[in-house]
């Protein structure tokens, strides 16, 4: 029995979906514990590509129970659309495969309207949100004024809460943000329809998960976004609105920290970022364009081109420390196949100082310049490698350097988008680390 947490170790888009899909083979329950449909997990099985925004990636495996925890904010329209698409493709034959915690908060139309209007009003100072209403929903949650799934499926409670909230939201939308007011009747009609379809999926995730753990079942906790977008530990205010670090798995699903056995950080072999905010190793040149092109670096949720840069060991050391990572899964190694030279940022230069720790002061971080160590590229196709030893020597050197500068062992290497293009060095669900 083992309980494993998967988190992004950079600014998101690290390839968590594929790794979760692979580890689901060993899990009984797969849990999404934070974020909303601002996430996009891309899975490639054979020639079929699946993009999921809310439902855990384990849903592609028959017989696995997938749980959306209390820490998630749920857009019911997106959720039901995902279910419909999956069922049309032959997945989710049993509705009992999917559970939503009743304490998860609901994204309302006014949350999305406020999110979009705020970004427009902020102009050059915008955060770079996806406009999905994620932040405003978490705001209402923290202010103890949110609407939860359990409220939505109780028509009288839901109607009362909408009547209480909407006048204030409309006033803010119209008078401050210059938007259009929303109709109470339209919201109630739309969301009551969602409630009737959602009700069969609602249960208490915390109880189910703790019973699973007590029974010796394997649980996989699936995070969204990345460590450097964490609301507390990321590059604030250019962050997401939830706790993306490993500790969020406990608060976002209702299990205790002593139940977690392994924390695997997902790390791209280079770095990308979507939206605004500092990015020390960003490449605004042809090399940056090449990484974007070769890596198909466009957001699976928004389609926005991602900013690209060299591997940043300073940022990764921060992520390893905050989440207590026990292993790293390196993704998109194949994107670097044709490069003569590859750079790793091992420290930052700031006003004559050498910084080895990631600064939390954005004014400092914005002025930091990367200090690089150059390595030879391997200039070979990795796609046929079947083990670490069959990788080109230069690729092995690059991976060993990552382990050295970050102080955390690599447990998996992705050498292509498909499931079978993966090298596993250790199985986190096996206490002896065996690969079966």
UniProtKB/TrEMBL annotation:
<keyword id="KW-0658">Purine biosynthesis</keyword>
<keyword id="KW-0436">Ligase</keyword>
<feature type="binding site" description="in other chain">
    <location>
        <begin position="13"/>
        <end position="16"/>
    </location>
    <ligand>
        <name>IMP</name>
    </ligand>
</feature>
<protein>
    <recommendedName>
        <fullName>Adenylosuccinate synthetase</fullName>
        <ecNumber>6.3.4.4</ecNumber>
    </recommendedName>
</protein>
<feature type="binding site">
    <location>
        <position position="40"/>
    </location>
    <ligand>
        <name>Mg(2+)</name>
    </ligand>
</feature>
<feature type="binding site">
    <location>
        <position position="144"/>
    </location>
    <ligand>
        <name>IMP</name>
    </ligand>
</feature>
<dbReference type="Pfam" id="PF00709">
    <property type="entry name" value="Adenylsucc_synt"/>
</dbReference>
<comment type="function">
    <text>Plays an important role in the de novo pathway of purine nucleotide biosynthesis. Catalyzes the first committed step in the biosynthesis of AMP from IMP.</text>
</comment>
<keyword id="KW-0479">Metal-binding</keyword>
<dbReference type="InterPro" id="IPR027417">
    <property type="entry name" value="P-loop_NTPase"/>
</dbReference>
<feature type="binding site">
    <location>
        <position position="306"/>
    </location>
    <ligand>
        <name>GTP</name>
    </ligand>
</feature>
<feature type="active site">
    <location>
        <position position="141"/>
    </location>
</feature>
<feature type="binding site">
    <location>
        <position position="13"/>
    </location>
    <ligand>
        <name>Mg(2+)</name>
    </ligand>
</feature>
<comment type="pathway">
    <text>Purine metabolism; AMP biosynthesis via de novo pathway; AMP from IMP: step 1/2.</text>
</comment>
<feature type="binding site" description="in other chain">
    <location>
        <begin position="38"/>
        <end position="41"/>
    </location>
    <ligand>
        <name>IMP</name>
    </ligand>
</feature>
<feature type="binding site">
    <location>
        <begin position="12"/>
        <end position="18"/>
    </location>
    <ligand>
        <name>GTP</name>
    </ligand>
</feature>
<dbReference type="InterPro" id="IPR033128">
    <property type="entry name" value="Adenylosuccin_syn_Lys_AS"/>
</dbReference>
<feature type="binding site" description="in other chain">
    <location>
        <position position="304"/>
    </location>
    <ligand>
        <name>IMP</name>
    </ligand>
</feature>
<comment type="subunit">
    <text>Homodimer.</text>
</comment>
<feature type="binding site">
    <location>
        <begin position="40"/>
        <end position="42"/>
    </location>
    <ligand>
        <name>GTP</name>
    </ligand>
</feature>
<comment type="similarity">
    <text>Belongs to the adenylosuccinate synthetase family.</text>
</comment>
<dbReference type="InterPro" id="IPR018220">
    <property type="entry name" value="Adenylosuccin_syn_GTP-bd"/>
</dbReference>
<dbReference type="InterPro" id="IPR042110">
    <property type="entry name" value="Adenylosuccinate_synth_dom2"/>
</dbReference>
<feature type="active site" description="Proton donor">
    <location>
        <position position="41"/>
    </location>
</feature>
<feature type="active site" description="Proton acceptor">
    <location>
        <position position="13"/>
    </location>
</feature>
<dbReference type="InterPro" id="IPR042109">
    <property type="entry name" value="Adenylosuccinate_synth_dom1"/>
</dbReference>
<dbReference type="GO" id="GO:0005525">
    <property type="term" value="F:GTP binding"/>
</dbReference>
<dbReference type="GO" id="GO:0005737">
    <property type="term" value="C:cytoplasm"/>
</dbReference>
<dbReference type="GO" id="GO:0000287">
    <property type="term" value="F:magnesium ion binding"/>
</dbReference>
<dbReference type="InterPro" id="IPR001114">
    <property type="entry name" value="Adenylosuccinate_synthetase"/>
</dbReference>
<dbReference type="GO" id="GO:0044208">
    <property type="term" value="P:'de novo' AMP biosynthetic process"/>
</dbReference>
<dbReference type="InterPro" id="IPR042111">
    <property type="entry name" value="Adenylosuccinate_synth_dom3"/>
</dbReference>
<feature type="binding site" description="in other chain">
    <location>
        <position position="240"/>
    </location>
    <ligand>
        <name>IMP</name>
    </ligand>
</feature>
<feature type="binding site">
    <location>
        <begin position="332"/>
        <end position="334"/>
    </location>
    <ligand>
        <name>GTP</name>
    </ligand>
</feature>
<dbReference type="GO" id="GO:0004019">
    <property type="term" value="F:adenylosuccinate synthase activity"/>
</dbReference>
<feature type="binding site">
    <location>
        <begin position="414"/>
        <end position="416"/>
    </location>
    <ligand>
        <name>GTP</name>
    </ligand>
</feature>
<keyword id="KW-0460">Magnesium</keyword>
<dbReference type="GO" id="GO:0046040">
    <property type="term" value="P:IMP metabolic process"/>
</dbReference>
<feature type="binding site" description="in other chain">
    <location>
        <position position="130"/>
    </location>
    <ligand>
        <name>IMP</name>
    </ligand>
</feature>
<keyword id="KW-0547">Nucleotide-binding</keyword>
<feature type="binding site" description="in other chain">
    <location>
        <position position="225"/>
    </location>
    <ligand>
        <name>IMP</name>
    </ligand>
</feature>
<feature type="binding site">
    <location>
        <begin position="300"/>
        <end position="306"/>
    </location>
    <ligand>
        <name>substrate</name>
    </ligand>
</feature>
